[in-house]
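Lecture notes, unit on protein representations.

Consider one protein chain, 578 amino acids long.
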Amino acid sequence: MKPKIILCLVLILSGLLPGCSTTSGHAGNGTGSSTSSTNDWQTKAIASEADLDRVIAQLQIPATRFDAMLTLLDFAGYPKGNIYSTDMKVNALHDKAIQAMRTCPGLDAVVATMIAGLKEPNKRLPMIEALLKLSGGGRGMQLSSESTPWSELMDKASQAALEALDVPTIQKALVSPDWLLRLTAVKQFGAVDEMGHPTAAISAWEPLVPQMEKLAADDDESIRSAADESLRGVPGTEKFLAERETNETSPNVIMTLLNGRFVGQDYQTRFQNRFLTLFVPLLSNRDEMVREGALHFVANNHMSAPMYHIPFGMDVLDRVLASTKAKSAKERWEATLALKEVRELDPDRSRDAFLDLVNDPDKDVRTWVAAGLANQLEREDVKQAIATLVKDKSPTVRYFTILAAGPPKFIPELEELSKGPNAQIAEWAAQMLKQVAFEKRNLTLQTILTNIESSIPELALVKTFGGSDYVEGVYIPANQRPLALDPRKQGDLLITIRCYDSKEAAERGLSASLSRQAGPDQTETFQGLTVYRWSSETVTCRAGLYVVDICAYKPSAKPLLLRAMEGLVRELGASVKN
């Protein structure tokens, strides 16, 4: 795994870094939390990398392949192997197991054996479980949505598992200790086929309703939500679902219960009002886990679909501020993230709360203080707070403080972190240093394109393009009206500057540029540089770490080629020296 900086931010805000749980009010057996004990990733058969290697070796032997696949699925099948862990070693082990399963020789035969097992009553449920863990319902271990032999095989596995879930099998799955089996069974309750026809008569489902209601009331958030959804419209469950509204402690499940309840032009306002009536008390609930779940919802609601955005008010802010002083570090952590999303309701009180958290004893809380102060960085008290956090004993706090306050201002600190003992932070800091260097370089190259316009009065820069290692500028005659269509196709002159990390890489880039068209027609020396020219009026050269291409698309621009090259050489300055 190589998590990028943006991925890290998303994972943290999604509750997948330390101290965060997406479950609310119920422990359940689900997958809502990545907080874990030291060894809960281990299974009976795999408790170390050596164990994993032994099982992977068995996967290569036809006689032991099937059992080895079941063992790997138990260890890293969906969803267990797809959940981001705070332990990078565990992530690496899961990745290794998943890769072994994906590249298993004779995988189609393994899947075929699983599907054949569905016909045997004593094997049906275990094989459904295996097929679901392998395919994740057609999504579990796929890396893209493109149709590939792998994706087609996973679709086949998923479809077979779902088709095997008839009413008697669903009844058994609803009481299974396996979370994925229970969740899938709940979703298949009252299912319809591809034509929209019920897969069984309503009377066939009635004996399952009590267990469905039990799961809706007592299981984890994901299963409660799915059970509520499946029970909607089932005769006789109206009173139960109505009571569920007032008893539910998960904001997301409340959303499910209210979804579709309101119609008409003002449906969204009535939905939001009813939701807030049920939600706001959760922020003051006696159960710490319920409060944490409610705070987590406040922190992440902005990432929901627009129709589910909730307009939080001062009553929410007051409760969030109260939670920043909670005894529980976990609750304060959730409150810190939540406060960032509602701080504009009262910027002064919110700022004061963040400043108080600068010295919080928990590093996970301190990690997000700077993000909460990032909209008031010009204040002296905020500057002092940032200065304190940048010197924090925790590398994580220092890194995320720098990220919030502006990485270009803290290059020495990033360099120190990139060489520090925390491997993950060191990797992220190194990536950020590269990103800052790229942005600085890109800005410099953009400025060069603008300066070319200033040095050649006949030209007007009408459009610039940029990527990770290049910039392009499109020029037209200064007296011509700006282009309304594609500048690349209508411009008179196109300048492309590509930047490389080394002279060797630049030479390879030059070779690639020269190979894109036959020729060149002639080679000449220009201000100490080797310039390649084509009759089509294209000029290419390598200037230090840069490869420059200038194309004159119209006759009027041809006389300006060398002037443009001269300007580029001057602007690039010392960088062009070989």
